[in-house]
Amino acid sequence: MADFFDDLETRSADEREAALFGALPGQVAHAKAASPYFAALLAEVDADGVVDRASLARLPVTRKSDLIDLQGTAPPFGGMLAVPPGELARLFVSPGPIYDVEPHGRDPWRTARALFASGLRKGDVVQNCFAYHFTPAGSMFESGAHAVGCAVIPAGTGNSEQQAGVIQHLRPKGYIGTPDFLKIILDKAQETGADVSSLKIGHVTGGAFTPSLRDHYAERGVTVYQSYGTADLGLIAYETPARAGLVVDEKVIVEIVRPGTGDPVPVGEVGEVVVTSFCRAYPLIRFATGDLSALLPGVSPCGRTNIRLRGWMGRADQTTKVKGMFIHPRQIAEILRRHPELGRARLVVGRAGDNDTMTLRCEAAGVASPGLPDAVAATLHAVCNLKGAVELCPPDTLPNDGKVIDDTRA
Predict the structure, then answer these.
(1) pLDDT tens track, the chain, 410 positions
(2) DSSP state of 64
(3) What SS3 class is residue 214?
């Protein structure tokens, strides 16, 4: 067990699915009973029937992009909270503003698993450089570090010279924070002569962690891993020493769906990350994060057996305005629904002189009927209230990047 946080990480896929979906009906029933929002959203849903991925996929999604409006209509938490606010440990304000919550308990955001996979162990000292002011990241990773058994320096953001000096004097083994701030600290230490050689492990999130940046840190003696999560859900997935994608956390159900819909896509196809959590205080059911990713086939070489994400691959909300009218990914999904002979589609928005243009590129299986382009063009006009060209192309020729609307206008 030295290499794993607990035995949940190495159980069989069947054991994991049985445990998660065995608990799901109770969580859905709890959300309906305790949360006004989910009571209304899931009013027609039989909680006892939500027992597998197929039945879960039939439930409606709740989009993170709608939280500001939902919380404005039913302040402060959009009716999603399942306990009185006074029973929570912390209340947060994220940009937007979006109000997030932290329940009581050991490691409520479940970040300990990710920190352990990065190499942190009981007795280590870590410098937590996430903000502790209003937003949840500082608390999120401090609670996880405590669950691992680490002592935490609550450094917060900024003050790079002081950060380097604290590392010299308190000798932390680990850094927790954004990918780029670690470089700022190391550069400041080099400039001032501070000894930061105690840093051996880094855990980063909240920004782009490129292979070149990872290699740069390795050259400076710091092995850095990343994780992926949100302020609403906590940890979703995390990197391991295998460097083979991000292993999904054991306490959430992750789906990848076609942007603009709640329809799961095949393994390997890029789509939007949708997460169902088992938090009793804030029971998010099919919460669409707005982030793009894809599932990797097989299991991680590190020995953890849960499904894996390729990592963060962009934003799913590709809404754009054409000729003064908004076009949404769900409208492209509706066109495909009306023409089942089509596969993936991408609406390319461009300019011709002073005019906006639209071309819907569609993958057509087999030999397309002569009238198919005109029929799809008519559907495009009916659904979007705008005329556009239709271009048919062979299967698997559109890029597998999750992009449904490609705005090429400068």
Answers:
(1) 369 999 999 999 999 999 999 999 999 999 999 999 999 999 999 999 999 999 999 999 999 989 989 999 999 999 999 999 999 999 999 888 899 999 999 999 999 999 999 999 999 999 999 999 999 999 999 999 999 999 999 999 999 999 999 999 999 999 999 999 999 999 999 999 999 999 999 999 988 898 999 999 999 999 999 999 999 999 999 999 999 999 999 999 999 999 888 999 999 999 999 999 999 999 999 999 999 999 999 999 999 999 999 998 888 878 888 887 878 888 999 999 999 999 899 999 998 887 889 999 999 977 778 899 999 999 999 999 899 999 999 999 999 988 899 999 86
(2) G
(3) helix
Q: What pTM value is reported for the model?
A: 0.86
Cα–Cα dist 58/228, whole Å? 26
Provide the residue count of the chain: 410
Angstrom distance (rounded) from CA 141 to CA 130:
8
* Helix 329-338 / helix 372-384 crossing angle, nearest 10 deg: 140
Dist. CA 285–CA 225, nearest whole Å: 28
Q: Produce one character per residue of 309-346: b if its CB has 16 or more CB atoms within 10 Å, e if not.
A: bbbbbeebbbebebeeeebbbebbbbbbeeeeebbbbb
Quick one: which of 131, 114, 304 has its CA closest to 202? 114
Q: Identify whether the C-beta of residue 177 lies closer than 8 Å to the C-beta of residue 130.
A: yes
Exposed e or buried b for every residue in 371-404, given b needs 16+ CB within 10 A? ebbeebbebbeebbeeebebeeeeeeebeeebbb
What six digits make up the tokens of 304? 């953890």
Phi, psi at residue 163, to the nearest 5°? Answer: -60, -45
Q: Reduced to 3 states, what is the DSSP secondary structure of residue 55? A: helix
